[in-house]
Write a structure and sequence with these properties.
Strand order of the largest sheet: 1-2-5
CATH topology: Rossmann fold
CATH class: Alpha Beta
Number of strands: 5
Strand content: 5-15%
CATH architecture: 3-Layer(aba) Sandwich
Number of helices: 7
Largest sheet: 3 strands, parallel
CATH superfamily: NAD(P)-binding Rossmann-like Domain
Radius of gyration: 20 Å
Structural class: alpha/beta
Shape: elongated
Number of domains: 1
Length: 172
């Protein structure tokens, strides 16, 4: 076995930070691929933390909530393809495209500079936590997930405008 002291110096502590999202804990309509990829990275981080512990490598899951001044919403909107006419959502195309464009998220979130300063402060602690939560709703999501699933579904449908999609689909 290798001498661990040769792997680690007093001035350098190995650290892996996997940037996930509160989307790993709470899905949003029309963001299933994004949410699933972040959930996969959350589990990846958990397993890496165990596997790398013998080498004194710390693994942190950085769960970010909403942050203003980032390009997430702009990127989604720039790459959004129009809803196909054959989609099961075609009768409510306007409502669905509005939800897909994340219009509900525009202008929302924590200040990017404040987020960055807090993340650096968290990651440079002598003993950083295995999960760092920063950004709008990042801490709250941890507790919101304790609510009954039906309540959560209703909250997120309203937040994202999906209730309007459901209502429009039910019209005769």
């Amino acid at each position: 076995m290798r001498d661990k002291s040769s792997l680690i110096t007093a001035t350098h502590r190995p650290l892996v930070v996997n940037h996930t999202s509160i989307g790993a804990d709470r899905g949003v309509p029309f963001q299933s691929s994004y949410n699933a990829s972040k959930a996969a990275m959350k589990i990846f981080s958990d397993v890496q933390r165990l596997e790398l512990a013998p080498f004194e490598v710390e693994v942190i899951d950085l769960k970010t909530g909403g942050v203003r001044g980032t390009n997430l919403v702009n990127t989604v909107q720039a790459h959004q393809a129009p809803l196909p006419s054959t989609s099961i959502y075609a009768p409510v195309k306007q409502e669905v495209e509005k939800a897909i464009r994340l219009e509900w998220a525009r202008g929302q979130g924590a200040d990017a500079q404040v987020w960055a300063k807090n993340v650096v402060k968290d990651l440079t602690k002598n003993n950083p936590p295995p999960v760092v939560r920063r950004g709008q709703a990042a801490t709250m999501t941890r507790f919101v997930n304790m609510l009954p699933q039906k309540w959560l579904d209703g909250i997120f449908k309203n937040l994202t405008g999906f209730t309007a999609v459901e209502t429009a689909l039910k019209r005769p």
